[in-house]
Design brief:
By secondary structure, the protein is an alpha+beta fold. A five-stranded antiparallel beta sheet has the order 1-2-3-5-4, covered by helices on one side. The protein binds guanosine-5'-monophosphate. InterPro entries: Histidine_triad_CS (IPR019808), Histidine_triad_HIT (IPR001310), HIT-like (IPR011146), HIT-like_sf (IPR036265).
């Protein structure tokens, strides 16, 4: 009976680590190797998911970079004009901070200049941008305080396709609310 159950599970779910573990256990094999198999299979699946997500992000970043400097508005212009709704964390006349739609941490807020003024990416910064760059950093600190992560947070700027920048309107990622790893990927 146990063998029959195992066969059905194997037939239906042969590709999953979870069921591979169930099959081994039901055949009377030691639970310890089963759990190792279970973990190994799931870990490799998680790795594959991460690898595939990374691949998607890299492809999206490469595609976005093609039109980086054509002056076209980005999705952030629609967020600034409130045409696209966002959860605003902080706003003044120069800076807007809103929650990232695809957060990578319990707190993940984007801080952007309201006027792009050529700042499609940090690599385009000129001396005249010094003031707004300072304001963006200070806004990141305000966001960290508002979000309750002042004692530990990370500020990230992805610049260009090799850093996976996907929106060509300068933005700071403010991340926190969990232990950050170092070095970053
Ligand atoms: P990048 O990859 O360029 O460094 O970061 C762009 C960020 O913008 C990404 O983390 C992405 O999740 C975020 N994003 C893209 N579209 C939207 C949107 O429509 N709303 C919000 N809130 N975030 C967005």
């Amino acid at each position: 009976m146990a063998a029959h159950t195992s066969f059905s599970l194997l037939r239906n779910y042969t590709t999953t680590g979870r069921i591979a573990a169930t099959v081994r256990t039901s055949l009377g094999l030691s639970a310890y190797p089963s759990s190792i198999n279970f973990l190994t299979a799931n870990r490799s699946r998680r790795y594959l998911c991460r690898a595939s997500a990374t691949h998607d992000e890299e492809a999206a970043a490469k595609a976005a970079a093609i039109n980086a400097d054509n002056g076209a508005p980005t999705i952030f212009d629609k967020i600034i004009s409130k045409e696209i709704p966002s959860t605003i964390v902080y706003e003044d006349d120069k800076v807007l901070a809103f929650k990232d739609i695809n957060p990578h941490a319990p707190v993940h807020v984007l801080v952007i200049p309201k006027f792009r003024d050529g700042l499609t990416q940090l690599g385009k910064a000129e001396q005249r941008h010094g003031e707004i760059l300072g304001q963006l950093l200070y806004a990141a600190r305000i966001v960290a305080e508002k979000e309750g992560i002042l004692e530990g947070f990370r500020v990230v700027i992805n610049n260009g396709p090799s850093a996976c920048q996907s929106v060509y309107h300068l933005h700071l990622h403010v991340l926190g609310g969990r232990q950050m790893q170092w070095p970053p990927g």
